[in-house]
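Ticket reopened. Same input as before:
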Amino acid sequence: MTRHQKKHWVLQVCRQLTRLTVLALVVTIVYLSLYAHYRAAKAMEDEQFLDGVNGTVLKRIDQHVSEMEEPQAFLDDYKGTLWSMRVAGVDVADPLAAAEMTATSKAIHWPLLLSIVIPVGITVLLGRVFCSWMCPAGLLFEWAQGLRRLLRLAEIKPGNVRFSHHNKYVLLSVGLLMGLIFGLPTFALIYPPAVLSRLTHAVIFGTAFTGMVVVLGVMLAVEVFVSPRWWCRTMCAGGALYALLSWARPVRVKLLRSKCTGCRDCEPVCPMGIYPVAKSNSIECDNCGLCLRHCPDDALVFSIGLPGERGRSRDHKSPTRNKSTLAKTASVLAFTLTMLWSSSANAHHILGLPHYSYKENYPQAPTLEYPATTGPYDLVMTSYPGKPVPGESANVAFYIKDRNTLAPYAQQVKVRLIQTSTFGSNKVLVPPTTVDAFDKTHKISMVFPDEGEYIVELTMDVEGQTEVIPFLVVAGDPTATASVLIVIGVGMVGFIVIVRAIKIKRARRDAQRNGESSSAPPVVA
Amino acid sequence: MKRRDFIKNTLATAATVGCAAALGPLGMPGAPSPTNAAVPLRPPGALDEDDFLSRCIRCMRCIDACPNNTIVPLDDGFGEETQSTPAIKARRQACMLCQGVEGEYLKCGEACPTGALEPVRKNAQDIQEKVDMGTAEIDFELCYSYNNWSCGACFRACPFPGQAMTIGMWERPQVNPDFCIGCGLCERACIRYPQAVRVKPKSERGQTPARKPAPMPKPRWGAES
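Engineering reply: fixed in the latest deploy. New output:
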């Protein structure tokens, strides 16, 4: 390793550390927010709320934060996700978030635009460093390349389809235009750093996150099976915006033509899939510095120069320049259109002082409600506890009300409980039971024996006709059962893949051995 | 080869745009949510539903900022376009209007980076002026106080007692829509289930066809079996 390479090896270590720091920051901010909730609810004083991983982390945070002079002011300074975040009291937002929000709302919101000043400034000066030095999704996708090696080990050939770098500019312009037309955001739902950091939030706060896992899973599947670094290179609208902003960056990779021997060692290591010797000036370059690290001739260096100076090394003119201009111009146009379409919003400030107070918080248990309608009746089924606990009795109440007269239904109804089954037939647990109206509702107590899905079936008389209304009730957490099934399925597929890989490897070895012993052509099993 | 590349890239981009649009603007309406509301109850200071959805960037900052853990990100019960947007499920936790918390503004509006939630000062006048999450509605058939028991839990929970909610003989509550801001504290406090008082989100007001307000029941003196 030459001195030059050693220096850039350190640079790469710094890059990975910066990324891990950003990831740690995202996780820490979520935990600080969770801690703020616990603190406000005075739950830090009660051991029963502090179990598991979250409890341990929260206790740790409590040790440090409670010693501060103004803990609440400190906590208020850390909020949000990578899409828009408050760090140490400074608002920072992704430029794509600001662009998209401006498009969807057609209004310019100055606080949001001010919060993109720092990221835009960094990009204009240092290039697309968000992609290479900060984005946690980039880290995820980089690690996913390891999975491709694993696939090769398992004798499955991962695809290597090359898509055009221009696609992301098309996606950026189409997305902004869709925002302008429909008034609803799309990038917020697919932009990987935003999704990943929202996923972290959902996991730690214990809210629903299946949708985000699906989005990231699909992207990862394409990365692993179809095209390496597909998203960052060719699809990321955020990357496209950063690339356009980095057009005049003073810090860029420079080729020392006198030293380059044309070995092309830098080509396969480039995460953005460009050939650094020919295209180090391209806006696709995210200044990650990997090519510097892998150049055996020390021919690639970082240079700092005024935007005008880069013209000197432009003799390697990209043959695709003209094609790409169209896509890039389109996204710049879409961006301009967004800004022109939007108008400034007004600020609202009125002064005053608080004069009343409410601190009581009732410990009222939540109830789940299942609405339905039939004929002139509005129905609502509630259960207490809100989510039935398997094996424990749950109170189920039906409230049936005439939509027009607002009178409750006073006749008898019949209720039946059926346990659904994924494999095999459904089981009737409670045979049709007659329930009288009591105090305006029809109440019945039931036991849901296992985790899983049940149907509570209500039979009632609607204007002389018998109507059957089914309500789907979930007891416990049946996803636990589903995840066991998924694990078994994945295990079986994995077993088949491994057996197949061993067979192929053995056949190849036998073929080689045959080839050595006799000159017969190798037989592929 | 050139044409093939063009088709390949166009297809890849179109597929990505299609999937993204299916998640967002062109998404299918979600499965009916296990609650009675057709639209979600938004945090205090929220713009009208359409404006709110176009402004909100789903950054979770209001959810982080809420001191009472009241605001939750929606799952797809209200349609794909509302995914991860903040909402209040009053029966789970209602908005306490940041009472007993330091600060000049309601925390969620202060945290919002896009103006989807307007900043609202923590005084009665500003809250009355700017906060309109919805209006509480009482089901007189279910309410204990109108059915021979005396309760009054909702009145005691109301942050504007005597204005947003008044109380009559046997603690029979009445909602004054001019003052009610839809914080949901009465819904949360109701001891009946299904609960007798619910907040109707403001965006539902425009959607439902004009209907006569529920007639006030006549006072029923004495027991009535």
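The CA atoms of residues 91 and 188 of chain B lie 5 Å apart. DSSP finds eight helices and six strands in chain B. Please confirm and we'll close it.
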